[in-house]
Amino acid sequence: MLEILLLFFAGVLGGVLNSIAGGGSFITFPALLYIGIPPVIANATNTFASCAGYISGAVAFKNEIKATKNSLVAIVVLSLLGGTLGALLLLQTPEHAFSTAIPWLLLFATVLFIFGANLNQMFKRIGSGNKHAGVVGQVGLLALFLLISIYGGFFNAGLGIISLSYLALAGFKDINQMNGIKLLISTLVSLVAITIFIINGSIDWFGGVIVMAGTLLGGYGAASVSRLLPGEWVRRFVIVASVLITGYFFYDVYYID
Fold this sequence. Notes:
Blueprint: H1 2-20, H2 25-34, H3 39-60, H4 62-66, H5 69-91, H6 95-114, H7 116-128, H8 135-154, H9 159-169, H10 175-200, H11 205-225, H12 231-255
Helix pairs in contact: 1-2, 1-3, 1-11, 2-3, 3-10, 3-11, 5-8, 5-10, 6-12, 7-9, 8-9, 8-10, 9-10
């Protein structure tokens, strides 16, 4: 019973964070590991569980997403392709190698979260200075987006932050529209990865369904009331939690036999 409550409330909090600021996997992924699920399966299960929050959040931002007609085809195709490649890469990664990589993946996602605003500003300046960069610039943007989608299929944490930085680089300016597209990208990458994980039998259904129920509730509720919440407080909470969790995993992997 205690495990069920832990997973459900981790899901609710993760869904809230994913919709408002990103970083929900810093809560849900460690919770799945805590109850004893092996790392690769915990990562696949976390992708499955988090997807409900992405979907509900994307639905709440459906009008903003619809306003991006010219970019939707490329976003959909590359998200599905990248999510497929990332999921296949995860399943080919040995359990021990993935366990060793977890602290570094979390550190990467943590740094992106902390400095995401700075990256967005830098990419906005780059984007505004290269509006007529031509075919090479467009191809480079598409290649970068494919790499981002591959990362999302392999390790879900931090995908929202990377997506926001990419959208700033691509020239998007409206934050609500960017949040909607971010959630769409996360939804598409996760859905195709989940399909592969299900076929491979890599999802812990007990833990996944409980966390998913929590993320569904948290994701939709947060998207609906996001303007009423103190965003900076949420951001600070995610930063503190991510730093502590990342530090714990470095200690666990490298200092505990």
